[in-house]
Amino acid sequence: MTTHPHPPIPLTNATLVDLPDAIARPQYDRSTLTPGIVHIGLGNFHRAHQSWYLHRLMQQGDALDWAILGAGVRAYDATMREKLLAQDGLTTLIELSPEATKAEVVGSMIDYLPIEDDNGALIAAMSRKEIRIVALTVTEGGYYQDPVTAAFNATDPDICHDIAHPDRPRTAFGAIVAALARRRTAGDGPFTVQSCDNLQGNGTITRQTILGLARAMDADLAEWIEQQVSFPNSMVDCIVPATGPAEITRAEQCGIADLAPVTHEPFRQWVIEDDFCAGRPDWDKVGATFTDAVHDYETMKIRILNAGHQVIANAGELLSRTTIADCMSDADIAGLFHKVQAEEIAPYVKAVPEITPSAYISLIASRFSNPAIRDTTRRVAFDGSSRHTGFILPILRDALAAGGPVSGLALVEALWARMCAGTRDDGSVIEPNDPKWDELNAVAIAAKTQPELWLAQSDLYGAFTANSSFTLAFENWLALLWQDGTRATLRNYLDDLL
């Protein structure tokens, strides 16, 4: 898409007809839409993915009674709410490929609920009978799991607050339980709770959190939820960078003044377990896959794409590579990606009907290499304490159990430890990039001379420290990273020199 010669048009319902002809827009009458979904966590990914699938159905004249009510439970969500309400809930999606840029306005969200300390408006909305799905994108680390056992963490302060104050919950899950309690009392039936986060078994984990919280509040309610509410597992996939000034400028160049546009790659995938207790839109008509084998799809995606991001992101940070595409254009980082994937990840991934693990690795390498997607290395490296435990360590566990090689995975963990020390190889500072940064940074600095201290973080590594093949490889790699630097260490790994 070429830069539009006229001043950008502010995005609202009233101005849709004035947008440049090349921009796709809702062909349905948004004033006739009625809500069927509350979605908690209106970040970029949801707006480029689940919201888009629903929008595509609406473009066909379907699912007009499934519109989205946006919601959030944190104070910072108020900023996004203000931006989206100012443009009537519309979002500009900008698809970026090396060949072309395309823009589309999505209109499947019709309101954004107020952000309140007690989540009163959210609970009231979810209590409405016409709401049949409550969906979430609240990040991988937002499900209140114990980092070692993966069990429900009933000791978290926010969870403790919700148990003590069930009518004034702080968390999304407390609000969901409160709404389900109201619906049970009113005889209005349950809704489906649908996680859309990058978690293996995301529906199962969501069920664990909801039931764990409900059991601590009301055993009868918990039993009703267990019997009546469904929690479908799903796999979601689309690379969606964060929005900053450059993305807003790109929207303006397309002719739209959007306060919160979203850029994304051309690829999308949504694989869903068909388990909806109160009905669902026909997302399969617009490309989603309903299957009983979600686990195989999500294992492939999480272990190759999500873990693949963590394989390269910390090396990229240390070598001052700004974007994931920059990382993949670096022969040593790309070599790390391909070698770890082929030797230590693919053996623990099953094929799915559409694609083999090796072909999927090639697909992901191509997607990561798309220079039009400015997906920053910093964004991908964010929250390693959740992403390494969620994406890398389960693979390591399987590799150790199978007696397979783990040198590459040990190097990945050593690169994370080195990155958390807070400086790049060129001496520049890495700004805090993890909710536990202060703790990680202190341990990472101490691990420069005592590498075993990094693995002694039991909330991260637990029983892994008992395996000498992993711990010895990790300690050797971390020592080499400090002694010779990241590039020399990567080349040692690629040449099988350690």
From TrEMBL:
Residues 294-477 form the Mannitol dehydrogenase C-terminal domain. Pfam families: Mannitol_dh, Mannitol_dh_C. Residues 36-285 form the Mannitol dehydrogenase N-terminal domain. Keywords: Oxidoreductase. Its EC number is 1.1.1.67. The keyword Oxidoreductase applies. The keyword Oxidoreductase applies. One of its GO terms (molecular function) is mannitol 2-dehydrogenase activity. InterPro entries: 6-PGluconate_DH-like_C_sf, 6PGD_dom2, Mannitol_DH, Mannitol_DH/Oxidoreductase, Mannitol_DH_C, Mannitol_DH_N, NAD(P)-bd_dom_sf. Gene3D superfamilies: N-(1-d-carboxylethyl)-l-norvaline Dehydrogenase, domain 2, NAD(P)-binding Rossmann-like Domain. This is Mannitol 2-dehydrogenase. It comes from Tritonibacter horizontis. The gene is mtlK_2.
